[in-house]
Amino acid sequence: MAKISADRTQDFVPIKEVRDGIVILKDGGMRAILMASSINLSLKSYEEQRATISQFQNVLNSLEFQTQIVIQSRRYDIRPYLILLEERMKEQTEPLLKIQTREYIEFIRGFNEQVNIMTKNFFVVIPYTSDLSANSASKGFSSFFKKNTRGSEDEKKDFEEKRSQLEQRVSIVAQGLNRLGIRTSVLDTEAVVELFYKSFNPGDVTSAIKLQENQ
């Protein structure tokens, strides 16, 4: 059976690289990703719900550029928590507390097998479309998910100018959401790579995800 190389796999991914937390597409476009908290409307009164929805609508209508809202839903991985409990149990010198910890571990493990505990993350993708064509964009980008790319001074200046425009858009979106009580955080390069890795490998839960730390 022929082996598909990493380069062939990358042909299906529109991302050229991630630099300074910014996703650079193969066509020269740029994307910034905001991680956002959520609001539980069910805890608000009817009037508060309507006011919140209206404010959110005003935020969207005030934007002069398109945005994409992505909701990532995953089954919660309790294995790190169970490992922590097992380590604590080994350190426990009191026999009764050790038994209670073991019973608690078994309870958590059994409960998780019976109930699908889901975790949701919310992201806002903010675009900036550059004037670069796919050919010109590829000249300055050497590899997929490469953090540091050395290029000419003109390329660096062009990148900084476009990043400045993108950061202005990020600031507009963040301020609008903050007025709604939604906390936001711009993903850095490591978090962006982690996010796309999980998106393209949904069955792999062995990686230590640090996205929650960016909230």
Quick synopsis:
47% of the residues lie in helices and 18% in strands. The protein is of the alpha+beta class and 215 residues long. The longest helix has 27 residues, at 153-179.
| Number of spatially distinct domains | 2
Broad shape = extended
Binned strand content = 15-25%
Per DSSP, the total helix count is 7
- Report the biggest beta sheet as strand number plus sense, adding barrel if it closes: 6 strands, antiparallel
Order of helices and strands: HEEEHEHHEHHEH
- Secondary-structure-based class equals alpha+beta
Overall strand count: 6
The helix content is: 40-55%
Summed over residues and divided by their number, the pLDDT gives a mean of 79
Uncertain residue segments: 1-6, 132-147, 205-215
Rg computed from alpha carbons, rounded to a whole number of angstroms:
22 Å
Query: What is the distance, rounded to the nearest whole angstrom, between the alpha carbons of the first and last residues?
Result: 44 Å
